[in-house]
Amino acid sequence: MKKAIATRLCTILTGLVVCFNAFSQDSSTIKSLPPVKITASLRKIPNSIWKGFSTYFNDAENPRWFRLNKDYLVKFMIYDEENRALFSKKGTLIYHISYGYEKSLPPDLLDQIKNNYREYEITRAIKITGSGRLVWIINLEDEKNIILLRMEDGEMEEAERLKKTS
Description:
Blueprint: H1 2-23, E1 38-41, H2 47-56, E2 61-68, E3 71-78, E4 81-87, E5 93-100, H3 107-116, E6 121-130, E7 133-141, E8 145-152, E9 155-163
């Protein structure tokens, strides 16, 4: 059951990231994105990419690199958190996603969540940075519900509320 819930939450997160990108675009024109092509893990990384990665993520452990169209995707760990970052071929960070927990949240956001959702446990806190934006996706659970929160610039919104099945 936990695996099914986790799978559903991952699907929801993916949908939110897609929506996050879609709403940031001009809605007067519809743009079709090219297909994403991920190739096998890479053994040799260009120096510009490695330098950019080292600048941002000096404490990274076990980086695994993949080619994503013309960009470079890296999956790595920092302490006990799984991370993903996408770099351009010039070594510029495009986005970074960190999969954390309650302890990963800044104190002000944690207080805001705890004040509004006293009976809920924070089960996951995902931090998404890119294009000058910082968005948090927080999973909350109680005995009967799962809530997916989206937080940006001090604003908190319930993206989805699910009822647990017994």
